[in-house]
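Subject: Interface between my chains keeps coming out wrong

I've been trying for a while to get a sensible model of this assembly. When I model each chain on its own everything looks fine, but I need the whole thing in one frame so I can look at the contacts. Pasting all components below, labels as-is. Any help appreciated, I'm running out of ideas.
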Amino acid sequence: MALSDRTLLGPGPSNPYPEAVLGLSAPILGHLDPEFISVLDRVCDRLRTVWGTANPLTMPLSGTGSLGMEAAFANTVRPGDTVVIAVNGLFGRRMSEVAARYGAEVVAVEHAFGEPVDVQRVLDAHPSPAIVAAVHAETSTGVLSDIGALGAAVHERSEETLLVADCVTSLGGTEVAADDWGIDIGYSGTQKCLGVPPGLAPFTFSERAWRRRVETPPVWYIDLGLLGAYVRGGPGGRAYHHTAPVGMIAALDAALERITAEGTAEVAARHRAAGARLQDGLEDMGLELFAAKGHRLPQLTSVKVPDGVDSAKVRGRLLDEYGIEIGAGVAEYASTVWRIGLMGHNARPDRAELVLAALREVLGR
Amino acid sequence: MALSDRTLLGPGPSNPYPEAVLGLSAPILGHLDPEFISVLDRVCDRLRTVWGTANPLTMPLSGTGSLGMEAAFANTVRPGDTVVIAVNGLFGRRMSEVAARYGAEVVAVEHAFGEPVDVQRVLDAHPSPAIVAAVHAETSTGVLSDIGALGAAVHERSEETLLVADCVTSLGGTEVAADDWGIDIGYSGTQKCLGVPPGLAPFTFSERAWRRRVETPPVWYIDLGLLGAYVRGGPGGRAYHHTAPVGMIAALDAALERITAEGTAEVAARHRAAGARLQDGLEDMGLELFAAKGHRLPQLTSVKVPDGVDSAKVRGRLLDEYGIEIGAGVAEYASTVWRIGLMGHNARPDRAELVLAALREVLGR
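Reply #2:
Try treating it as a single job with all components included. I did that and got this:
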């Protein structure tokens, strides 16, 4: 059967960087091989660069971005802890569900979908939460929130509160400055702006988070005490925890080499340029953007489906006739919003023009 | 920097089948793309073949084999449940630790390392456990246990008890007959006899397990209710849970195509032939095998380090001079046992002869 070669302009996965594809086909090394340990150390260093952090515990977790979310709460929530969560999309909702499974008293601060996080409302929700959590780049709505402002406010009020930030759709596309912003626990996924196939969750955990962590979390697989003994090593060397996904880590290494060589600021500028071109083009076509003006992600554009247009039929035609995948909306916006991603290797003007041209044809505009 | 091309003859990862490497470099598809859903369905079908099961809930979990162990207990243990675990190596110990994190009252039935599971002792350990768990192929010791005999005994005594089997090192190398043997929950990893890089956990869950499952497990990422809605679909189609590692799943698909074309019985015979050649050769060299005779895994041979020989130095020379990785022992046998794997693509006479020749040289035998 012939293979299809899609142009992946949905909310992720994106088409990987060519370097990542080459990295995937490198010979497999053992997870305790000194050469692999060098690769892992380099990946952790490069992740520190894109996260903007000096955290020793910065590494790829062995699962997709959602496992990063799980690890954030599994290692920090004690039953009865108050966790304030800014909910302005599906992934804020998901955080609430995951935190609750670990026994958190979740205070969800609901925002209209399409709006950024309101720092004051989050602060006012509870005077002394154990954790405050928010999504930097809401994949479900295409909205960017100001995590730096949230971090400053949270930490100014208390040295004890931990800040969790979901950076699944931002890392590698929008600049993240975890240390400057006061992010204590950050997680991401590889299949969006980092330009690697799905399967790893880049993760960072601050010294403050380490001091306040749950020593024996309910989940063994993402127990940071055990993982740290492998990733950081100790007096006895690297302690085996589980077999690291060595091939995926080599692919991430290759993509991070490309991203850091281009420069994180330059990569972010490339995403902004591509996103602006797409968003201008959509408005020129008479379409209405969904996310609040001034808070739109360049790497993921949400746009309203015009009245009378069948969302699924348009997506189907783009896929079948043009090989282009774009995303539906989520939850209550499933059939009234489209999501168009220009992430990682796809953050380029030609991809913006391609999807605009295809949409013009299909919509007859 | 030049890439090293290792011959991976340790306890895993093994060198992947060439088909799996090709599968990895296939174009990435979206996780909701109809073409990817076909790939996923085919993978689940092929997994049912190698598992020897008709279980609808048979799929690759998005993490390494250890995530499979976590999912087995996360979805079945209620606090206070009695879980009888046969411990005849590191992975039985690990099962005990993981089950305990979910609140199990663990009854560990300790065996000497190197011995197979004693069915009667496991039965006698508790009259009515909720779960009985054992390792089919102990990666830490090279021992094969009779899961079919254990399953028959457990289910004859009670229709209610669930049987968990760790098949990380057996699946794809030794025949597994999950339905015939009464395995309710089985998990594996891709990086051993299945001949795929590490990153997925093939998993199967019986109807009996489904009826007795924890409806809202503490861990969201491996909640089988949510995962089932994506993998099996429902009236509304495939419900998004998390972004499936599409590239790894394509690689698994390619390896399973090869394995099922060769035939699972033929693949097992190939593993037996390679393992016998290696084990005979080691004994001819005057080395002593560690695992009990009659219960030795062909795909993973444990052998005692001769007196006066520095285990780590030998492994280092094999790696540096021959590019061959073999494994150390684990726990109390770390420096007194080697583990030599002939798994998946490496289950071949030439690989057996290669490691024998290299060992002869290095040991001066």
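Reply #3:
Confirming on my end. The longest strand of chain A covers residues 82-87.
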